Amino acid sequence: MSTDEVRSKDSVDMKFEIAVIPVSDVDRAKEFYGRLGWRLDADYATDDFRVIQFTPPGSGCSIIFGKNVTAAAPGSSQGLYLIVSDIAAARQELLGRGVQVSEVFHNEGVYVGSDEPYLFGRLRVSGPDPEHRSYRSFASFSDPDGNGWLFQEITSRLPGRIDSAATSFASTNDLASALRRAEAAHGEHEKRAGGQRDENWPDWYADYMAREQAGKEPPQ
Fold first, then answer.
1. CB 66 within 8 A of CB 26
2. Going by C-beta distance under 8 Å and a sequence separation of 6 or more, which residues neighbour residue 207?
3. Do 54 and 41 form a contact (C-beta atoms < 8 A)?
């Protein structure tokens, strides 16, 4: 039995569920995260304690903040990633909610600079990744205390990052975006087939979407 098989057999599920966000004004933070459109799960208080929990749309992980929840300095949480399948749409939604968001940016292989840090360094190049590669386009915003959030656009996972036997979408928006990408790829497929309509397109779509999510090569 291989090491991976032993690890898989003996592992206990450990689902990352909560990130603690340090804030100075609990009600101000509650208003901000509610304005993002995140789901309010809890607002529980006693005389000397208060905890508020929010969950971003489609997320399996939530945030909590409140009174006497953490000793960390307000605004000290940085590099909090929100994964989206359409970064332009995600950015536009927050702008529509009155939230200040940076322009979309990417990196061109230079990992030092004076900009705020993110996954690929400290130099932000304006605009999305020119090749629209998964993992490579970002936008950032902060809450009123300065806790820093980053949108990262991911449309295709690296191999091994998800269960290749399962295909799931966190929201109808993610599913719609995946269908649009499949439609565009299928158009190229039909061109290669001499412009003939592919009667088997539902199976081709399904195969494409499952392969894309698992980080595999698209169907030919």
1. yes
2. 219
3. yes
Amino acid at site 24: S
Structure tokens that stand for 167 in this block: 């295909």
User: Nearest 5°: CA angle at 123, between 88 and 131?
Assistant: 45
Amino acid, res. 27: D
Is the pLDDT higher at 134 or at 201?
Answer: 134
Question: pTM of the predicted model, to two decimals?
Answer: 0.71
Torsion of CA 168, 173, 174, 176, to 10 degrees: 90
User: Quick check: helix, strand or coil at residue 106?
Assistant: strand
Q: What pLDDT sits at residue 170?
A: 63
At 121, give phi and psi (nearest 5°): 135, -145
Asked if the model's pLDDT at residue 156 lies above 90, the reply is: no
Tokens read off for 9: 């057999």
Distance between CA atoms of residues 78 and 146, nearest Å = 8
